[in-house]
Automatic annotation (TrEMBL):
Residues 190-224 form a coiled coil. The chain crosses the membrane at residues 29-54, 359-380. This is Capsule biosynthesis protein. InterPro entries: Bact_polysacc_biosynth/exp. The keyword Amino-acid biosynthesis does not apply. Keywords: Coiled coil, Membrane, Transmembrane, Transmembrane helix.
Length: 387
């Protein structure tokens, strides 16, 4: 019996095709979830992905040396400027660099949209991306992915990184953001100085009003009490009382001598009347001083309170004026300033994307997805009810 060579060849080809189809069917999920993504990732990152250049700069916010504790005066205590530390100002700058305001301000000086839409970019990495409309919000989201400001607590520096598709665009955006940051620091200085001046002027106005009120109350009290200076009046009363007491003492000595030497002397009654009159005058003077609630002693206490209030208000006004003058001097000085430690560089070679690392990441992620799916499928088959 002879076999037809064509039939044998066709049978062999059919068997090979069946084996190939069986092999493809068996590894179809591996191909779909591992081989295909790996090939696409290798194709994109190896041949299509655009080069990305990174410009880096560093800056620090510095403040003048503060006064030592021994030089702190009452005026400096009263002058609450509201200034924080340089690190706090750096955080404000970082927040600004990541804001929509920074993008809007930068767009007035640098063509940010044009830089991110560079012809050097590929269809997947350039702006706008395939799913975006090109709005400002889309540009802002893209901007956040390309600009990063990060503080370094150890050194106190803030590092600014800018990614772009050409080295010139990366450097221009980085330099523009640094200039905007310097302007913001100057604005913060102006705002702090204006607030310090306003606070100092307000304290001067309050002190002046307090001095005026104290003087008005003291003058009104003098008019009401009909007394210019209770201290001087008290000294006059004490002098008059002392003189009357001396007179009474002399009269009593004279009366005692007459009664001893001439008990019937006709001048004795007159001397007694003079003694009584002198005693009445002494009692009157004592009453003027301390005898009643309206006496000089009570008026002197209130007068001294008003006088102390006027003196304190005057001292407070002096301190407030010193504080205002200090605020004016400090307003002419720069409280904080941005110092560039590292100028924005012009990159001479792209450092992104890391092509090999990206390809390996795609392969690894694909394998993970495949293994997770394979374990789920095995678990489902093991727990499936037998027919």
């Amino acid at each position: 019996m002879h076999h037809d060579p064509d039939l044998q060849r066709q049978a062999g080809e059919t068997t090979a095709e069946n084996k190939l189809l069986a092999l493809l069917k068996r590894w179809r999920w591996f191909g779909a979830f591992v081989v295909l993504p790996s090939l696409l990732g290798t194709l994109y990152f190896g041949f299509i992905a655009a080069d990305i250049y990174v410009s880096v700069s560093s800056f620090v916010i510095k403040a003048p040396d503060k006064q030592s504790a021994s030089n702190v005066s009452l005026g400096s205590i009263l002058q609450r400027t509201g200034l924080g530390s340089g690190q706090e100002q750096s955080n404000e700058i970082i927040g600004y660099l990541h804001s929509r305001d920074a993008l809007a301000d930068l767009s007035q000086k640098v063509d940010v949209r044009g830089a991110f839409s560079s012809p050097e970019a590929d269809v997947f990495s350039g702006f706008p991306r395939l799913w975006e409309s090109g709005s400002f919000e889309d540009l802002y989201a893209f901007y956040l992915g390309k600009v990063n400001a990060m503080p370094d607590p150890a050194s106190g520096l803030t590092q600014l990184k800018v990614e772009a598709f050409t080295p010139q665009d990366a450097q221009a955006i980085n330099l523009g953001l640094l200039k905007l940051s310097e302007n913001l620091v100057n604005q913060l200085n102006e705002r702090v100085n204006e607030q310090a001046m306003a606070d100092a002027e307000e304290r001067v106005d309050e002190a002046q009003k307090r001095v005026r009120d104290a003087r008005i109350r003291l003058s009104a009290y003098r008019n009401t009490a009909r007394i210019l200076d209770p201290q001087q009046e008290g000294m006059g009363i004490m002098a008059a009382s002392n003189e009357l007491i001396s007179q009474e003492t002399a009269l009593r000595a004279q009366l005692s001598q007459l009664q001893r030497m001439a008990p019937d002397h006709p001048s004795i009654p007159a001397i007694r009347e003079r003694i009584m009159a002198t005693r009445q005058q002494i009692d009157t003077q004592t009453s003027r001083a301390v005898g009643t609630g309206d006496g000089l002693a009570s008026r002197l206490s209130e007068y001294e309170n008003l006088l102390v209030e006027q003196e304190f208000a005057t001292q407070l006004l002096t301190v407030a004026n010193s504080s205002l003058e200090q605020a004016r001097v400090e307003a002419e000085q720069q409280q904080y300033y941005l110092e560039r430690v590292v100028e924005p560089n012009l990159p001479d070679a792209p450092i992104l994307p890391n092509r090999l690392k990206s390809i390996l990441a795609v392969i690894f992620a694909s394998l993970c997805v495949y293994l997770v799916g394979w374990m789920l499928a095995v678990g489902i088959r093991e727990h499936a009810p037998e027919s």
